[in-house]
Amino acid sequence: MKAVVWHGVGDIRLDNVPEPKIKEPTDAVVRLTASAICGTDLHFIRGTMSDFEPGTILGHEGVGVVEELGSDVRNLDVGDRVVIPSTIACGYCVYCRAGYYAQCDNANPNGPTAGTAFFGGPKDSGPFQGLQAERARIPFANVGLVKLPDTVSDDQAILLSDIFPTAYFGAELAEIKPGDTVAVFGCGPVGQFTITSAKLFGAGRIFAIDQVADRLELARKQGAEVIDFSREDPVQTIGRLTGKIGVDRAIDAVGVEAETSSDGAEMKAQFEQERSRIAPIQKPDHENWQPGQAPSQALRWAVEALCKAGTLSIIGVYPLTAENFPIGTAMNKNLTLKMGNCNHRKYIPRLIDFVRTGVVDPTQILTETEPLGSAVEAYREFDLRHRGWTKVKLEPAA
Questions:
Q1: Is domain 167-339 given the CATH code 3.40.50.2000 in the classification?
Q2: What is the pLDDT of residue 384?
Q3: C-alpha torsion angle, residues 161, 163, 168, 174 (rounded to 10)
Q4: 31 and 82 Cβ atoms separated by less than 8 Å
Q5: What is the pTM of this model?
Q6: Number of CB atoms found within 10 A of residue 143's CB
Q7: Residue-averaged pLDDT of the chain
Q8: Positions in the chain short of pLDDT 70
Q9: Which CATH superfamily includes the segment(s) 2-162+343-395?
Q10: Three-state secondary structure call for residue 2
């Protein structure tokens, strides 16, 4: 079968790989009808996240049809349409029972303290073969697959595998209450759904901070007050627009690769210079840089933009080497800090109901659909943030 395979930093290929097989009685094999490209995948290609094994299939977002079931999968039938939660969980350990599926004791073969297990990730996440393929083996399928109603399309469902649940989780972590003023840093796919989720939680005002024009345009269409950090200082602007109080809740929806200048114009210049120096999907020339040498600018802005006793939610991805944070400012403002990997399985059934009943139509974020055979080219376009390439769905061949 065909799959998108990681061979090294800057080197991904569409390869022929072996068909997946049932290994455990709790497994299932799913024929993928849709996958997607996520910003997290770019971390692996750029080398921001280390210890990736050559030969690993990329991708952690998937929708498909059950083709084969292990003997202990008792809640599904062959032929069921399903969405695949990005993180893998057993469903029976103490953490899963409490809803902390991302901290499952049993899913990660590296042990209970190894961290979140997910599809298409580095060694410390399993590794498990990913979902940018024609078929995939799904461990703990009775928990790791959620049946879809006929009224929810593949285009809608693929956005429920990772980015909408992650965003909803971020809004919940932020403790948004009706009437709150919220700042969302990063208006990529997760940031867009974070705006949607903040509205579902009753936010009174939402500020959306980014520099990519079409992403800011999408945020404005959702009713957010947009701030282009390449044109103005977001902290000063938020201060002016809130009577120097700041926001009640701030959400970092961008993570480790947020630019790291204290000045928006300087940041944009640095970003463009880096883009011209590094060809897309090629090995970056930053061998001596280690993530964590400086705090993410989004994090620093978020801390500074919050009001006293506000809440910071962090759902952007950071590697284990990220160790710096403006703790002094946060402590002296009595901020509450909440963060983590999304417990996808906890939220997906609720979000399916939002989509099924028409409360949310997630497809406004889905801007490109490409065949799996064009995945490498689609990665290049997505990496360059070309206008309109907000979220990319991949379709395996029939």
A1: no
A2: 80
A3: 140
A4: no
A5: 0.90
A6: 22
A7: 89
A8: 257-295, 386, 397-398
A9: Medium-chain alcohol dehydrogenases, catalytic domain (3.90.180.10)
A10: strand
